[in-house]
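Protein modeling request. Please complete all fields; requests missing the sequence field cannot be processed.
Requester role: graduate student
Desired output: 3D structure, token encoding
Chains: 1
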Amino acid sequence: MSSSGGSGSLSHRFEPTRQGAYHVGILLTEGVSAWTAHDVNDGRPAALGWHMGHGALEDPRMPTHPASVSFVTLPEWSTLVPDAALVPGSEVRHLELVHG
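Delivered output (100 residues):
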């Protein structure tokens, strides 16, 4: 993998076009993006990729028809609240409402 990104298989059986075979997890940050594919039958990691910017979303090795997809954004947007929106002392209550 180069310093600007790359992808690779963790399993010799990885086929990105196999329909419904993988759960794809996607990570998006301000400067880097990444994906990982896990086999839905046994949960084992099958492949991963990372790229500068949002290039991981266009990686040709990312599964094309996953069974499911989850996203993580960093920083976690649900906790970014302007100071003026919170009454002093209510930060903990806000986080409990957002995250349970």
